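#help-structures
NK: newbie question, is this the right format to request a structure? protein is 5-hydroxyisourate hydrolase
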Amino acid sequence: MSGKVSTHVLDTVHGCPAKNMQIELWAIASDEQKTLLKTLYTNQDGRTDELLLNESEMQVGIYEVWFNVSDYFASFQTNQTQPAFLSRVPIRFGIAHISDRYHVPLLVSPWAYSTYRGS
């Protein structure tokens, strides 16, 4: 089995995949220094066309995925406070085994979110 990291974003306000949400993937060093690895956008299915990390990019370590939630909901003119309650949602996760599959989904509204480790 080849390792990879993927994501999927579901918009719980409109009941659909979150299309065209900006996502950033960051590597976190032991001294908390952050390095931006990728900036991607979700497609019509709420997934990215490119994996967050493919088999050759997998490394043991700590990562963060930043989901740009307020910009996404603003594109629908969804009612949000100013400043937005949820602007960017960070999810920090660790990769312990580079041969594993990691799926980092996000279920989101302007007021709440949920995630879990998928496969």
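mod (FA): yep, format's fine, and the tokens are attached above. The chain has a mean pLDDT of 96.
NK: thank you!
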